[in-house]
Amino acid sequence: MDSLREIEGKQVHDPLSEKNMNKTSRCVFVPGPVIVGAGPSGLAVAACLKEKGFSSMLLERSSCIASLWQLKTYDRLSLHLPKQFCELPLMGFPSDFPTYPTKQQFIHYLESYADRFEIRPQFNETVSHAEYDKVIGFWRVKTIGKKSEKTEYVCRWLVVATGENAEAVVPQIDGMGDFGAVIRHTSSYKSGKDFRGKNVLVVGCGNSGMEVCLDLCNHSAKPSLVVRDTVHVLPREMLGKSTFGLSMWLLKWLPMRLVDRFLLIVSRLMLGDTARLGLDRPELGPLELKNLSGKTPVLDVGTLAKIKSGDIKVCPGIKKLKRHTVEFLDGKTEKFDAIILATGYKSNVPSWLKEGDMFSEKDGFPKRPFPNGWKGECGLYAVGFTKRGILGASMDAKRIAEDIERCRDEEAAPYDRRSLLLIDDLYRKKEEQKRKGYMGKESSAREPLSFQDDTNQTKHWSKEESEGERRLL
After folding, report:
1. Which of 15, 91, 341, 471 lies 20 to 30 Å from 281 when distance is taken between CA atoms?
2. CA-only gyration radius of the chain, Å
């Protein structure tokens, strides 16, 4: 009886069991590229491809475009850079938008962008596996839908647009389970109004951590900021211009180290000595550090004034947590009602993309640094991994569209129905061999091959139509 139960248990999780193979869903051939991720990067690639006459399949695990912006950002968020540096290709911001658009304005811009280029993502489709099939010369992208339905997309080109911020980074702090109060990542933080009158510890001194502290102050909370590393804090604007825009202009004429020296001198004059506030600066200048490590300087939007006034307290790193209490590395302890983790995000590419050449298994970023990390082998591309924001993603989106156009022209005409039938035959043979080898008998679980037409609609061949065309090959 126990052995029978064990066999039944194994069959439940066995993808090759006859019962589970009958759950296998459809296979869709996509004549254009498949793009994974419908954030700004994915939208940019889809638009650039559309301009060149390509239809593409955009797969998005969430229920909306730009899900990070729509679902995982705080209410007071605005762009930290001027709008001209955050435009996607082929369409600028409305002229009546402010220099630094709000979160809602940016979302409106992205939705208008998708409408203009008729970008219609497949929502609620989570990519579970993507791998290049050398036998058929195409990428096989497997997804799981909202109701656990499975689909496999077959495509010549695969664009990874899941970006740098796919998954929240939650550090493991000694005693987290004993804290007994709210511990929340910024992806779940919306507004300081939920913490009015409470002592809140914010972990992380990047742009998000600094702005969350300011938001808490503005809602009458009492925030403290954990600063574990050195950090460059710069004013958002210098000499009447955006700090970023001024830096880009100066780099046209001066070496990076000289521009860094200028930025630090002006910052010292405008902000004072940040080290006296517990915010030590790195040895490398802000631009050089960004170029080498991707670490972005903080653009101050008012937080520094609150630190100077004592409304925000700067604390060292955390040693351990106890019930409603935090012990810091300097030995001091303090009680808190909540902890907000402004500890950033990470790439999730290694969890679903099975290839070892383009992406690093360690951090999920392209191994080749910017500006050469956008292209891999066998029609694989990456966008949104430059550590240079939307500006870097837009540059890569244009390169990708141009390269796919070149590949199409070199490889002759687009794939016709005869090509699809050949691929379908290969799939059938491979699946039959797999089933025969495992069960000793045939099992037809997969639906007939579908294909995506020029209007992005998925169509199916009848059995008679498929067999009739096969006889012509």
Report:
1. 341
2. 26
CATH architecture, domain 168-344: 3-Layer(bba) Sandwich (3.50)
- CA–CA gap between residue 158 and residue 151 (Å, rounded): 16
Kindly report, residue by residue over 82-106, the tens digit of the pLDDT: 999 999 999 999 999 999 999 999 9
Summarised one tens digit per residue, pLDDT across range 141-166 is 999 999 999 999 999 999 999 999 99
Question: Which fold is adopted by the domain 32-166+347-414?
Answer: FAD/NAD(P)-binding domain (3.50.50)
Percentages (nearest 5) of helix, strand, coil residues in the chain: 35, 20, 45
Farthest CA pair distance, the chain:
82
C-beta of residue 128 within 8 angstroms of C-beta of residue 144? yes
Predicted confidence at residue 2, as pLDDT, reads 46
Q: How far is residue 331's CA from residue 30's CA, in Å, rounded to a whole number?
A: 60
Phi, psi of 148 (to 5 degrees): 70, 15
Please give the model's pTM, rounded to 2 decimal places: 0.84
Gap between the Cα atoms of 253 and 251, Å rounded = 5
Query: H or E stretch including 162?
Result: none
The Cα–Cα gap between 328 and 321 comes to 9
Per-residue pLDDT of 38-77, as tens digits, reads 999 999 999 999 999 999 999 999 999 999 999 999 999 9
What are the structural domain ranges in the chain? Answer: 32-166+347-414, 168-344
Alpha-carbon gap, residue 379 to 402, rounded angstroms:
13
pLDDT of residue 272: 96
**Residue 91 in tokens:** 């369409």
Out of 19-33, 208-222, 397-411, least confident range: 19-33
Residue 255's contacts (CB-CB under 8 Å, 6 or more residues apart) are none
Q: Do domains 32-166+347-414 and 168-344 have the same CATH topology?
A: yes
> Tokens representing 214?
């300011």
Distance CA 107, CA 78 (A): 11
CA distance 85 to 88: 9
Contacts of 466-469 spanning 24+ positions with Cβ under 8 A: 466/421, 466/424, 469/417, 469/418, 469/421
